[in-house]
């Protein structure tokens, strides 16, 4: 993949993450502030809702992973669920640690943790594991 295309895919992934993140963050605030659910649980609820949007956008727009040279949607979805579970665990525990360790409001801690998890965990696993292209088998003379 060319450097220009890699930058373009990275930018699209960040737009997707930001869009899903806004939904996720909004749900977290709603659940915590209005429904009085602990913020670590609200992060999980928001993460699941944001993940639905993020999976769809990434599959069809960011990585074009609905093409024949990608895994079937079921395989992608199973892998994505593992990534989301890890992401939610990292975001919930990281937000709790930063909030309690540094005595920062959970809303700010969440943003700090989100940036790290989104770039260092979610993007890498989605690009190179969940939505990666399948290698094409080349025919060699010995295959005949």
From TrEMBL:
The keyword Membrane applies. The chain crosses the membrane at residues 7-30, 36-57, 77-96, 108-125. InterPro entries: GtrA_CellWall_Glycosyl, GtrA_DPMS_TM. The keyword Transmembrane applies. One of its GO terms (biological process) is polysaccharide biosynthetic process. It comes from the Bacteria. Belongs to the GtrA family. This is Putative flippase GtrA (Transmembrane translocase of bactoprenol-linked glucose).
